[in-house]
Amino acid sequence: MRFPDSPVFTGYQAPSRVESDIGDLEVLGTLPPELRGTFYRVGPDPQFPPKQGNDIFFNGDGLVHMLRFADDGRVDYRSRYVRTDKFVAERRAGRALFGAYRNPYTDDDSVKGMVRGTANTGVCLHADKLWALKEDSPPVLMDPESLQTLGYHTFDGALKSKTFTAHPHFDSETGEMFAIGFAAKGEATPDIAYYVIDKDGRITHEAWIKAPYSGMVHDFAVTKDYVVFPIVPITSNEAWLRQGRPHYHWDPRVPVYMGVMPRYGRAEDLRWFKGHNRYSTHIFNGWNEGRRIFVDTAVAKGNPFPFFPDITGAPFDLGASAPHVSRWIIDLDRTDDGFDEECYDHEVCEFPRVDDRLQTRRHRYGYISSLDVFKPWTRSVATERPMMMFNSMSRFDFEEKKHERWFIGEASTLEEVQFVPRSRDAPEGDGFLIALLLRHGQPHTDLAVLDAMNVTAGPLALVRIPVRLRPGLHGTWVPHWKRPANPLRR
Length: 490
Ligand code: V55
Ligand code: FE
Description:
3% of the residues lie in helices and 37% in strands.
């Protein structure tokens, strides 16, 4: 077997394929004693070379990483592949059986009709289980401690959508989880299912809507009173799949639509608002003040994904691919169908997050990975997405409209940032920021821990994982008051 000699499979992005249990990690600096809990993070890490000869980063098998900060100050590390149906079938066969990203027509006959999910995009804890998520399939449940895969979860058959988002949202007051499934009736269908799931993991509300066009609905917003479905021009079409074309094409001709519905509403209550042609996938948070709804997000003017080509044949525009901190404002009392957009600065950034306790309510601070283009930058790393090689950790103050950032140094990239509250009831912003630093060309990975009120000072501590991690996607922090972080059981 051999992986392709392409950027996605070599150097910095070479698959690691490592599952490990490493106790007592080295700590450089001093860890704050309040930092107790578990950090989970997931990313694509292909088990086998791609069936198609090459592949995109988004299609690798989900590998979950866990860092436990126990009461005695010890930090342990564990990583496990998610045993998706795909992973298990391919391991048995000893080769890839599933083909191109979200294209079942490219699969081996032996796996026709199987769930294609890789569980490689999002991870969260709910109802005492770890949920490993890929937006093309149902959630996979795992044991939060052993990382043993429990299998696909359909809520005892109540999940009628074929898909489930990698970006569920939570209301910390009610303990509810909110989720969507797009392409809910099959690949490239415009149907979106919306689910409210109670703190015990039962579906308590469901609604089905139809988007104005089919495409990637990677994230959405929930507020105290409303749910917002952003439809962005990363479009899909069943015909392209049969033609062997990429699953998505960027369409510069269509607007963003925002579907707004009461939080426990039905399809009849839905209202569509229309904006410019824009990209946004990730949302900091949403909230509403009466009938005004605010969605803070990272917005780009053009296509951010070079591997999803422009439908008009236009070449990839690197400048237009850069997202910036922005706000979308919907006023339900407006009589036209427009909504407003405010762009707050020109820093290139992605992976927006807030203090998770404030989801659905107004936040002041956003935390985001950013690219400081004025800093020395190592270009030795081949990548198909240079705008996503983040070198700085940023806190954006939505009141002052300004960034504070820490440059992580050369030859490293920063992953998604998590806010960790100092205590259960600490005020917003009082706590720590944690993020992985991928060290190019080095055999280890560091987790940086910063004071969230003093980002510019840099790390209080680095926790060293003595293996190279492949670039990943999203993560979550589970504080010790939600679930104790016991030292690794051997
Ligand atoms: C993203 C990542 C995915 C995917 C769709 O924007 C969107 C990120 C890792 O997979 O399938
Ligand atoms: Fe995402």
